[in-house]
Amino acid sequence: MNPDRPTIEFEAYKAVVDAAKAEILSKMPKPEPVQWRLVFLVLPVLLTSILGVLVFKLQSSINSKLSLTQDYYRKRLEVYGELYKNLVSLRERAQRALDEPTASAGLEDTVESFNRNYSANTIFLTRNLMTASDNMWSTSVRAIAEPTISPETLKAIKDGADAVEKQMRLDLVAED
To answer: How far, CA to CA in Å, does 95 sit from each of 70, 113, 132?
Structure first.
């Protein structure tokens, strides 16, 4: 027997074991580097935070625009209400001025009140309503210059008031 034979067999077994060990290790998953694990932990947190900030800013912008729009339309409704009160008063005083002198009917004060209210709030009026109100005011001013109102002038005032009222109704139901 050869004294080197156990060494050769040992080396052969060692080579087989090393090959099996290498094969097993190559098939085992390799651990990810620490930097990648850290990126996968931090990245979702950062992206979620950034998205949260963007949504917050967008929502704040929308809320402030909505609030301003609500305030605008609330004020517009108040202005239209006052304008309508002036129209009712103007119609009544014009009707009264048909039978009595224009000065004693109080038409001048009502026309002045209508003009003051309309002029001070033009920012809340549509162009069509401003045009109708201008026409109404012009007709009313001509009427108070007369000593008494004629039936034709009364009709012109009522038609002007109707046009203003109709336009207000259209403005209030129109979708902007």
So the answer is: 37, 17, 20
* Helices then strands, each counted (H, E), the chain: 6, 0
Average pLDDT over every residue of 47-67: 94
Q: Report domain extents, the chain.
A: 70-173
Q: How far is CA 10 from the centre of its chain?
A: 86
In whole angstroms, what is the distance from residue 45 CA to residue 24 CA? 37
Q: Which two tokens stand for residue 13?
A: 């077994």
- Quote the radius of gyration of the chain (alpha carbons, Å): 44
Q: Which residue has the tokens 């108070």?
A: 144
For the segment 92-118, what is each residue's pLDDT rounded down to a tens digit?
A: 888 888 778 777 778 888 888 888 988
* 1: confidence class by pLDDT, cuts 50, 70, 90: low
What phi and psi values does residue 152 have, to the nearest 5 degrees? -65, -40
From residue 54, alpha-carbon distances to 47, 51, 59 in Å are 11, 5, 9
